[in-house]
Write a sequence for this structure.
């Protein structure tokens, strides 16, 4: 009995460690967490934990295996994290498309307006939803006589994408040099962004197919194990013993760890940005860095 309790406690600690690692947190809880974030995250966390506990209790009752119940709790809590990589990459592709559309709109507006300060507000009405708030803040900053490099740097930080950094550097260069090459530069940037968008769409389509197959395999294996535990007890009867539960705890912990590892492998690689404030923008403009 002592071995069984030790295995259960070890599995619980392992599940907690896997969950914190999947969330990008330290294994040792940090004390410095703002109360506002706690209040905002509490309802969603409470719902997730409630659903996980209900599923875990149901699985434990059906299989009569406490380890299976704990594993069900871990999978329910981790599943949103396991499916997160696809949503992150989809959002990134949508942001690239928004930047490409806005760059083309700014190019057309620059051809019709007399200067950059007049062209930027002209793109606000038809701006993509992902860029509407940052662009509105940019236009408001320019209306308040904020220096252009500072306003553009704040816009780039709010969009938080390297594609926006490229456009912002090009705008800063053109504003300082006054060479009349804004339309040509924006045309080149729009074309490059469109090419990147097509490539990322193809990669996203291929990865989504792999993710679907992976999820189907995971769910199929879990369903098969559950059906055997409920309706074919004779096949899995050895797991009902004390040592069987200990072995099942090891297998379950390994399985959950592999799921977390699979999620990390499927996650898109982070794309580093070019800018980190108005100082970097002025430095990039002075050195002539566009792409």
């Amino acid at each position: 009995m002592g071995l069984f309790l030790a295995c259960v406690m070890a599995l619980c600690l392992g599940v907690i460690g896997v969950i914190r690692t999947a969330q990008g947190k330290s294994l040792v809880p940090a004390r410095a967490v703002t109360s506002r974030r706690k209040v905002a995250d509490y309802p969603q966390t409470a719902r997730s934990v409630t659903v996980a506990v209900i599923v875990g209790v149901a699985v434990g009752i059906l299989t009569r295996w406490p380890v299976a119940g704990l594993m069900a709790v871990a999978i329910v809590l981790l599943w949103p994290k396991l499916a997160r990589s696809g949503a992150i990459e989809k959002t990134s592709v949508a942001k690239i498309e928004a930047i490409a559309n806005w760059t083309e709109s700014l190019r057309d507006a620059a051809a019709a307006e007399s200067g950059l300060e007049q062209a930027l507000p002209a793109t606000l009405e038809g701006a993509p939803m992902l860029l509407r708030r940052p662009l509105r803040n940019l236009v408001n900053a320019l209306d308040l006589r904020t220096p252009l490099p500072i306003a553009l740097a704040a816009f780039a930080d709010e969009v938080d994408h390297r594609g926006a950094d490229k456009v912002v550097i090009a705008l800063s260069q053109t504003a300082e040099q006054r060479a009349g090459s804004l339309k040509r530069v924006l045309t080149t940037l729009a074309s490059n962004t469109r090419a990147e968008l097509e490539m990322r769409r193809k990669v996203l389509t291929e990865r989504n197919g792999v993710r679907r197959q992976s999820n189907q395999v995971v769910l199929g294996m879990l369903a098969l194990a559950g059906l055997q535990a409920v309706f074919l007890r004779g096949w899995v009867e050895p797991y009902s013993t004390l040592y069987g539960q200990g072995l099942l705890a090891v297998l379950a912990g390994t399985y959950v760890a592999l799921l977390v590892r699979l999620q990390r492998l499927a996650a898109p690689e982070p794309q580093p940005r070019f800018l980190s404030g108005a100082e970097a923008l002025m430095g990039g403009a002075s050195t002539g860095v566009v792409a």
The radius of gyration is 26 Å.
